[in-house]
């Protein structure tokens, strides 16, 4: 085996067969040992120096990347034999006098205390199966999975859909799929997803030159840039002419099946960027920002951690409400929300607004949603390492509301997912329509009949208000829904959070996350994010699929 990081074989660790994993671990252990000995022979560093933190850096020969991967496996692999052996290999390297990495941050989310998330190795049988499936498919158990697992039924559907889009037979080659994921995630400056898919892109044989910027990718992918931009920020502007341009550009043209695959990937990763920022997903342990080779200080974090925004656990999860106890203030909010739901239900039973009044209420809510913004809303220049994957960095959702542009109304009665989009996707990319439909339904209908500390609560009214508010921001109207309910059920802090996560997710802050539904469980806030993800994805899809349908007819 060559002494190169790229040729360390990790594939065997994904096997469900313990003997195959053991053989792979032995091979990795020997390769790491050989490299380590070339950097620091045992006799060269007295053992006592390890305690002083005066260890040799591991940067040479790609060893640092291998050690970071082993650190991730020791913390995040669902197979205990892999966790234990990875830890043992790291200890062996440290004994040779070489500095090993340690994790930064606290758990898979910056917003949710680690002790309230599922700990790898302590999951129940059903969750272990999900973790093992995810690890076998992706070669990692990522932080998105560790947060989504609050809702196992949804996670199973999500993983199945993502696996099909990225790895099963389909119109697009594998490296195109990951590159499109990079393009989509980069629209929201989501370095977390970009980093994951850069690694996957290279793993499936993608050309590293493409990663130097979109202009280095094939013209066919460059042509997708305009659709990516509009889908992410202003999907209502997509017309059949945009579709025609992609399908009729001679040697760089897309087939209809390829375009459907690309559109589903773009919408998947735009909405997954929303989830990543909305739940405060931490960098993966083996990626930039997820680990450090600097030694810890006495208090277990050093000045470099503070600079990067990592503080003590108590500091990270401090209450945002100052001296007012959260429980006293928030219990009132939960009770008030439940009372409003009860009153709205009674009003529904007593009288129904006219169609004209319903239309007026929709237009009013749509107009008002344009001007919902956070006091923390600031312009932020995208980091260069992410912005090179897309063009026109100034193009965003905010521009249209600032200039008073009008979002046209899209009536679901004229073009819906159930009656139109589903069949179009299934016809051109078999089985994907079914997978998406299942995922939409699980997110929309998911309920445990609880609200904070209350049980046996029908939350359907609240879930529908959240879903319809998101679609309202995109101009999508349901004729049979009274949009007056939205203002009753969603307060300003919640609307700010929804608008930010859906439209400019890169600007989401922990303060926004903490400020809505303060008495609710973290699992309930993650549930909100699942609704945001799926409602956003469906909204983008509706506009793109309607344009494709118009092109075809």
TrEMBL record:
Q: Which domain of life is it from?
A: Eukaryota
User: Which reactions fall under this protein's catalytic activity?
Assistant: a hydroperoxide + L-cysteinyl-[protein] = S-hydroxy-L-cysteinyl-[protein] + an alcohol
Record's keyword terms, sorted: Cytoplasm, Oxidoreductase
Q: Name one GO cellular component term.
A: cytoplasm
| Annotated GO biological process | cellular response to L-leucine; cellular response to leucine starvation; negative regulation of TORC1 signaling; positive regulation of macroautophagy; regulation of response to reactive oxygen species
Enumerate the subcellular locations listed in this protein's record, separating them with semicolons: Cytoplasm
Q: Which InterPro entries match?
A: AhpD-like (IPR029032), Sestrin (IPR006730)
- A Pfam match is PA26
Recorded GO molecular functions are: L-leucine binding; oxidoreductase activity, acting on peroxide as acceptor
Family as reported in the entry's similarity comment: Belongs to the sestrin family.
User: What protein does this entry describe?
Assistant: SESN1 protein
Gene assigned in the entry: Sesn1
């Amino acid at each position: 085996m060559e002494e190169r990081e790229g040729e360390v074989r990790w594939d065997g660790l994904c096997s469900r067969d313990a003997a195959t994993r053991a053989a792979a671990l032995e091979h990795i252990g020997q390769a790491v040992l050989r490299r380590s000995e070339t950097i620091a022979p045992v006799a060269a560093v007295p053992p006592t120096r390890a305690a002083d933190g005066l260890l040799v850096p591991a940067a040479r020969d790609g060893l640092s990347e291998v050690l970071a991967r082993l650190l991730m496996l020791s913390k995040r692999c669902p197979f205990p034999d892999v966790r234990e052996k990875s830890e043992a290999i790291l200890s062996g390297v440290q004994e040779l006098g070489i500095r090993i990495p340690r994790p930064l941050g606290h758990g898979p989310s910056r917003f949710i205390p680690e002790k309230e998330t599922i700990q790898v190795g302590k999951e129940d049988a059903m969750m272990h199966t999900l973790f093992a499936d995810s690890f076998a498919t992706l070669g990692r158990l990522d932080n998105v999975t560790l947060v989504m697992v609050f809702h196992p039924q949804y996670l199973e559907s999500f993983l199945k859909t993502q696996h099909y889009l990225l790895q099963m037979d389909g119109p697009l080659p594998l490296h195109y799929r990951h590159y499109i994921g990079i393009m989509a995630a980069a629209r929201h400056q989501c370095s977390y997803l970009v980093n994951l898919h850069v690694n996957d892109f290279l793993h499936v044989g993608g050309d590293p030159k493409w990663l130097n910027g979109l202009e280095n990718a094939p013209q066919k992918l460059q042509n997708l840039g305009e659709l990516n931009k509009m889908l992410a920020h202003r999907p209502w502007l997509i017309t059949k002419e945009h579709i025609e341009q992609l399908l009729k550009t001679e040697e760089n043209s897309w087939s209809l099946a390829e375009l459907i695959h690309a559109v589903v990937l773009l919408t998947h990763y735009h909405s997954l960027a929303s989830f990543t920022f909305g739940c405060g997903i931490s960098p993966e342990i083996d990626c930039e920002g997820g680990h450090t080779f600097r030694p810890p200080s006495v208090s277990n974090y050093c000045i470099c951690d503070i600079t990067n925004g990592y503080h003590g656990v108590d500091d990270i999860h401090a209450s945002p409400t100052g001296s007012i106890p959260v429980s006293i203030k928030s219990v009132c909010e939960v009770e008030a929300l439940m009372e409003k739901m009860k009153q709205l239900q009674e009003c529904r039973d007593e009288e129904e607004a006219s169609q004209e009044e319903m239309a007026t209420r929709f237009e009013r809510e749509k107009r008002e949603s344009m001007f919902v913004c956070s006091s923390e809303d600031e312009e932020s220049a995208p980091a260069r390492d992410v912005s090179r994957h897309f063009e026109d960095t100034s193009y965003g959702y905010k521009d249209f509301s600032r200039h008073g542009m009008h979002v046209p109304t899209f009536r679901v009665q004229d073009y819906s997912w159930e009656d139109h989009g589903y069949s179009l996707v299934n016809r051109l990319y078999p089985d994907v329509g079914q997978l998406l439909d299942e995922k939409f339904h699980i997110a929309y209908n998911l309920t445990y009949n609880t609200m904070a500390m209350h049980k046996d609560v029908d939350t359907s009214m609240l879930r529908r208000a959240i879903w319809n508010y998101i679609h309202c921001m995109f101009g999508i109207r349901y004729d049979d829904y009274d949009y007056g309910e939205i203002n009753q059920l969603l307060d300003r802090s919640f609307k700010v959070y929804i608008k930010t996560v859906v439209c400019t997710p890169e600007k989401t802050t922990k303060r926004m996350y903490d400020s809505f539904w303060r008495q609710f469980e973290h699992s309930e806030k993650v549930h909100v994010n699942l609704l945001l993800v799926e409602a956003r994805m469906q909204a983008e899809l509706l506009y793109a699929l309607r344009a494709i349908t118009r092109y075809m007819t």
